[in-house]
Design brief:
This protein is an all-alpha fold. The chain has eight helices and no strands. This is UPF0299 membrane protein GG9_1011.
């Protein structure tokens, strides 16, 4: 029990240090990127370079993920509290979200279509076409 408590404390301390360093970077680098994102990038770099072992942060990260919904309750309360402000600014908030979603969908569709027609995907395209033909035959036979 004491060992597990130590492991949990160690993982939370490492995660907090990454958050603190991220906030420090955000304070000195005027890039407009929040400190939590910098902290996540530092954690990612530490994990990929194996300066930080996954076992060191696993317990704390899994605990935070398990209670993530509870941690977002204050955000939801804030949204409800300022709902009148959100309703006033619905055009400013809604239009960019809808436009960016549509642009993302179109770009991903075009990229998927391009990849589908590449030479390296020819065998997969033939599989899909054959599967569609088989489905059409089965539909015709059952009708």
């Amino acid at each position: 029990m004491i060992q597990k408590s130590f492991l949990l404390a160690r993982s939370l301390v490492i995660l907090y240090i990454m958050l603190y360093l991220g906030n420090l970077i955000a304070h000195y680098v005027p890039a407009g990127v929040p400190g939590s994102i910098w902290g996540l990038l530092l954690l990612f770099l530490g994990l990929t370079t194996r300066l930080i072992h996954l076992d060191w942060i696993y317990l704390g990260a899994s605990l935070l993920i398990r209670f993530m919904a509870v941690l977002f309750v204050p955000v939801s309360v804030g949204i409800i509290k300022y709902s009148d402000l959100l309703i006033e600014q619905v055009n400013i908030l809604l239009i960019p979200n809808v436009v960016s979603t549509c642009v993302t969908l179109v770009i991903m569709g075009l990229l998927g279509n391009h990849l589908f027609h590449l030479q390296s995907f020819t065998h997969k395209r033939k599989k899909v076409i054959k599967r569609r033909e088989n489905q059409a035959k089965q539909m015709n036979e059952s009708a």
